[in-house]
What does this fold into?
Amino acid sequence: MKVVIRPGILVEPGSSRENKTGSWRNYYPKFDHGTCIACGICETYCPESIVFGDKEHKFDADLDYCKGCGICAQVCPKQCIEMVLEVR
Amino acid sequence: MGKMFVEGSMAVALGASLSRPDVISAYPITPQTHIVEDLAKFVADGKLNCEFVNTESEFGAASVVLGAQAAGSRAYTATTSQGLILMSEVLFNVAGMRLPLVMCVANRSLSAPLSIWTDHQDIVTLRDSGFIIMFAEDAQEALDLHPIAYRIAEDKRVQLPVMINIDGFLITHTFEPVDVPDQAQVDKFLKPYVPFQALDPKKPYTMGAFTEPAYHMDVRYAMHKANLDSTTVIEEVCAQFEKDFGRKAGGLVDTYKIDDAETVLVAMGSITGLLEEAVDAMREKGKKVGVLKIKTYRPFPFEQVRKHLAGRKQVIVLDRAMSAGFGEILGGDIKTALYGQTGQPPVDSYIYGLGGRDIFIPDIEELVAKPNPGTHQSEWIGVKYDLLED
Amino acid sequence: MQELKDKLMKKHLLAPGHTACAGCGEALGMRMIIDAIGSNCIVANATGCSEIFTSKFPQSSWEVPWVHSLFENAAGVASGIEAAYKAKGRTDVKVVAIGGDGATADIGMGVISGMFERGHNILYVCLDNEAYMNTGIQRSSLTPFKASTTTSPSGTVSYGNPTRKKDLVAIALAHRVGYVASCSLANPVDLKKKVEKAVAHVGPSFIHFHAPCPLGWAFESDMTVEIAKLAVNTGLFPVVEYENGELVKVAKIKKVPVDKYLELQKRFKHLFKSDEGKKFIAGIQEIADANIAKFGLE
It folds into this structure.
């Protein structure tokens, strides 16, 4: 998006979506859809708000943004998320 | 409304009120208190329909008007001295965010030592802020500059805040006959505020982002340029005011008997009134003296200063403030404008009237009579050297 | 995958791509809070983590109208916005001020006091990560007893921060704020209800949110929610609700000794290394017990 300097040091809402923070992580979350009960607790507790899913599709993380903090794995009541070392 | 015999503070309050602010927040401080009190009474009597917010400090008041402007409303505040410095953090913010706030500063000295009397130390400390800085010579001009200031500030080519400066006590606490325009007349001159940006859930924006080195200088340049270029709008608006109301107010500079002047006195603030009388007195004795009044200090009127001072035999700049460890302030700005110009005149600079100390016509005559023009830099007038410890 | 993302990814009022640390409790809490507030609001935010990681020019994570001015004046700016909207006759829009513990309890204390006293219809949210985190973990007046920060470090002759947390809930109540509540990641449903109540309340309201900070408190980034739960269950962060000065609700706890909370954070590790330090742990236990007694948390 073209950068424009405007009075008010104005910035468009939600423009941070351009910043793909996925490059930050060392570990990524691997979701076991077999064990997942689609409770949505992982979605509630993701600080980036990038865990998504439903009863039919189970849950996953948007790896464009995931910083690999591991909270989803820690809070999952069924321990079906594993933090895996990412090799790039 | 017609001619009224009012205190200068009342003229300011009337000027602010006629400009239809939506939000006023001002913290009382001598000698600005009557302005705040007059406005509070207007609101209490239903004569002024606006939100009047009493805050816990000048810093709070400035934050309130910043918020109000950011929300797309026309806001007003007034302060002086310690209050101006206390709110200076917010004021740099207001200018940096290009919010068209208008405020009145009743110029007063800065502590320490504490002094409630007038000088320009407070306003010169804010000269780098990005505010457009204008000076009123008397109560009439103080009133007139309010609608003028809003019209300049809110012009889409400017979008910068404006400070209207009046000498504390000398204007705020003296009574003068003032022509108070009708609301209808002012409404014709000053239209309702249409913000470029405003905080509104209907159209959300993020305002006041922080900048890394990659962008900071560019944003600052944009603001600085807008300030420099506002000279055009200032002249335009003041010319329109003269046309609509039949009298002059504001402008970049004003002159008195300058055309054939060999010596020109340069100053800002209410002293320019005294300088006119001094010039008349000296001309009776055959001296060709004139006055250049700096009406707008920022943006600095480079062109006008160069035009009026080139080729003069003597230029005398009077500073009602000083830069400790350096000396002159306006004097330095004048010299910078004249540096290397064709017809660069000799410039003398004097520091006078700090903390409300009076200056009289004989003092001015003495300055003009001093030999060796151009050799007097940052000389203090009337210091009681015998009081100083050895 | 992209199709699924587009279909199932919930839209929040705080967008991803912000630059908060991995596992940031403040980012998580702020998203929950702004979602509960809803889009018909205007936010005045103080300088701090919450502002820096969401508004680096030319990007912003905010989907609501938002303004940042200075460190100490979020409450003042919010007051001005509220006055402006009152003047416009638009009283349906909720004005919110957000500040960290530094902005709220220290440098902005006078300004927030003025805002409370004037009775503006503003919700003030304090995101409390217990130190000046954005500038590098310096202590604030909400840094807990004996925590180590860079300006109250533990050392050979020091055991960390010598003072107790200022009681912000009590300060708000002293200003007769009509709705005052504390909330935590430990109970997101309770957090949502409280924020909604605060928004509905006409007049000043205050929400104190406990924001665990993996970097500043020094714990693993995946432990944020666990730490928040322990803070509540030790009694060190009581989750309470006051309406018109009356205590109406407390979150009952499953009591845990403070050691279990302190030992997970390196900012307290110095207390476990000596007898003198262990005495201070007992002191922290006393603080927790006093909270439990005062609010009837058990």
